[in-house]
Amino acid sequence: MRTEITAGQTSDYLGFDLVMAENLPTPSVLLADRGYDADSIRKSMDKRDVLPVIPMRKSRKKRVGVDRALYRLRNLVERFFNKLKNARRVATHYDKTAESFLGFIDITSIRIWLRHLST
User: Fold this and answer.
1) Are both 83 and 55 inside the same structural domain?
2) Residue 45's domain spans which residues?
3) Residue 2 — φ and ψ, nearest 5°?
4) How many domains does the chain have?
5) Which of 41, 45, 46, 113 matches a 20 to 30 Å C-alpha distance to 22?
6) Measured distance CA(75)–CA(31) in Å, rounded
7) Among the listed residues 2, 20, 3, the one whose alpha carbon sits nearest the alpha carbon of residue 101
8) β-strand 29-31 against 51-53: which pairing, if any?
C-alpha cells in the first residue's frame, strides 16, 4: 500500500502519479472511481499493461465500457477506508506534520490487516 497527502482541493487524478510510481510492483488491474477517469491515466495504464476498470464520467464524449464484476471488488477498498476513518486520530487529523499523520495511517492499516488475518 502506498499513501500520499495532497491538498484538500486537489482532484483525484492530479494525485494519481504520486501513488502509481514506477518503483511499485505492477498491478494487473486498476480499480478506481469516476474521479480517475482521464485519458492520461488510461494511456499510462495501457503502457504498463494494466487493465483500467474505471467508470466513465457523464461528460465523456468517447464511451468506455467497464467490467462490472471486477468493479464490485472496489467495495473492499471503500470498506477499508471506512475502517481506517474509525480510528479517531485519523478522522480528526490530530497530527501536526504530514509525516506523522502518514505514519499513523500505516500503523492503523497494519492493525486492520492483522485483525483481518486473525478472523
Assistant:
1) no
2) 1-67
3) -130, 135
4) 2
5) 113
6) 10
7) 3
8) parallel
